[in-house]
Amino acid sequence: MRERWPDPRAVLAVAVAALLWSSSYAVTKRVLDDVGPLTIGAVRFTLAALLLGVVMWLRRNRPARPDVRQRRRLYLSGLLGITVYFVLENVGVDLSTASDASLIVATYPLMTMLWERVALGTRMSPLRVAGVLLATFGAFLVVRNGAEVGGGSRWAGDLLLLLGGVAWAGYNVLGKRANEGQDALGVTYHQTVAGAAGFLLASLWEVGEWRMPGAVSGTLLAYLAVACSVGAFLLYNHGLRRLPSSVAVNVLNLVPVFGVLGAVLINGESIRLAQAVGGAVIIAGVVVGMVERPVAGGREATAESASGAVTAPTGRGGAAA
Questions:
Q1: Could you tell me the pTM of the whole model?
Q2: What are the domain boundaries of the chain?
Q3: Secondary structure of residue 295 in the 3-state scheme
């Protein structure tokens, strides 16, 4: 059977989102010196929601307002993929390292694949499964390195980052069903509003630690809001409309490569041999996992169409770091 490759423009959109998201781990690690992890999320996504609200108000052709059921799903996916995921990510990065966080995201395709299998009944080709498992093995090398080098705190941070992957996978699967009739901008706006509201409530836990961030931290927070939240989420939602969610998340395995470079350049972190080997394995898994080989009877294509894959005529959304 002949291999099918995904839409290159959709892959490029997700890859650019990965490039932007890759910097968020090192940037967040720097901002954590001045701002608490929950407050970072509150400021970041409140700014993003305000910016998206202005863009939505200025646009000429606005999509139809989502009905009550759609809004419920969009808000739930926003809480799951923004509030829950980024709480786990920010606290995990605080306990661990930016390079570990960048590499652990390679486990997320496997989690998404399992969610798709359980929730949507999606059939995956053996080649794609092999690619995802290969990338996950690379992530295992990184996590094991963290346990050996950083001890209990770093290990706990790595585990929180892995739990964040469960939330992220659920967000991707739920996002596939949440946004019929909405484009990437509308989906991102509604999800960001819900995520920002959740973070504002969560940040009250740190109210005693609130203080005005310095000029550097304030600039980095603005970067997280504009580039890593608005820009990257719009690109990712655009790509996810035309890709199976497992393929889109597997492309995000490029985040580890970019992220480790950012951790070295921005935070001065050192890279060990285990991390370098894990990164090489992750890249191999990304390439293998992008190939779509139809299974017998066209079952994979049928399942993907039912879950909002490449052939879906209406908007699909999803979102990461």
A1: 0.69
A2: 8-306
A3: coil
